[in-house]
Write a sequence for this structure.
């Protein structure tokens, strides 16, 4: 259950990227962004709450949601703002 | 790199509106229930929940034991619900000691103990943090102003959909002179993620 990913003294290598979301250890993503609010627009909070509600209602599982989001092709994935990835996943799961 | 998307807000809002209408039509959730969830995210779901658990653990060794054994039950004990998604999410508390410092990430997406900390900050969701904190945790921590002695081991916990982590910081020196409310102010969101440590302000 517990996933201790990295500790000093353990051998670690930069892993290969299986999907666009799998960024642990990757280089080249630049600086940390400025502190921002949790949600910058109404639609972001709405898609967040809608996804919560769909999982709570058993429409799909959190794992299904993640899986669909992780299968967005890398080029599209990185062109999307964060919560558009969520929106895209819910669009594929809900209809 | 993901941008803010502000210039496409109209289009994105329209797509969300279509989904909200569909969800209501199917009887999954009403607009009013969506608004209630958003309201909760802005008020009752905040880092204060995690801070309450940490401060209780500083002042009550038996609670600390229960927190480290089963953090979800220890949260419920204080009336903090596990809320939001489902009972599949398990909270684990990882305690800092004189020898070990813990920090949390989700390398695969942005899994976060939202029910206990509120919505995650932008940097937690960024590829920059997620890629780098597992490779150079000391460097990332230093950017947050947290410079650890070389003899303190750093442990990086990778959260998943099912397992969420809450860092239990050590009580800072002089904390016993503070009231419980003052102690709560020291335990910030960043302390609970592990990129900061609580400090007693110098008067």
């Amino acid at each position: 259950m517990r996933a201790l990913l990295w500790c000093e003294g353990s051998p670690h290598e930069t892993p290969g990227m299986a999907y666009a979301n799998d960024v642990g250890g990757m280089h080249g993503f630049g600086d940390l962004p400025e502190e921002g609010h949790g949600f910058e627009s109404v639609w972001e909070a709405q898609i967040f709450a809608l996804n919560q509600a769909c999982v709570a209602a058993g429409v799909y599982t959190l794992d299904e949601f993640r899986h669909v989001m992780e299968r967005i092709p890398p080029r599209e994935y990185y062109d999307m703002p964060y919560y558009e990835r969520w929106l895209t996943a819910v669009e594929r799961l809900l209809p | 790199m993901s941008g803010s998307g502000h210039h496409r807000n109209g289009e994105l809002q329209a797509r969300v509106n279509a989904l909200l209408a569909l969800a209501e039509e199917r009887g999954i959730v009403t607009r009013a229930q969506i608004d209630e969830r958003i309201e909760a995210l802005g008020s009752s779901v905040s880092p204060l929940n995690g801070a309450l658990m940490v401060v209780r653990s500083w002042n009550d060794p038996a609670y600390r034991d229960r927190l480290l054994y089963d953090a979800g039950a220890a949260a419920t004990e204080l009336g903090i619900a596990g809320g939001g998604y489902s009972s599949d999410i398990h909270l684990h508390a990882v305690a800092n000691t004189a020898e070990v410092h813990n920090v949390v990430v989700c390398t695969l997406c942005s899994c976060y103990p939202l029910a206990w900390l509120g919505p995650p900050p932008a940097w937690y969701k960024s590829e920059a943090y997620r890629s780098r904190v597992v490779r150079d945790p000391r460097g990332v921590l230093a950017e947050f102003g947290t410079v650890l002695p070389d003899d303190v081991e750093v442990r990086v916990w990778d959260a998943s959909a099912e397992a969420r982590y809450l860092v239990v910081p050590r009580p800072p020196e002089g904390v016993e002179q503070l009231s419980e409310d003052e102690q709560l102010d020291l335990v910030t969101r960043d302390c609970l993620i592990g990129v900061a440590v609580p400090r007693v302000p110098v008067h």
Summary: Chain A touches chain B through 63 residues (CB under 8 Å). Residues 65 and 89 of chain A are 6 Å apart (CA to CA). Confidence is low (pLDDT under 50) at residues 5-16 of chain A.
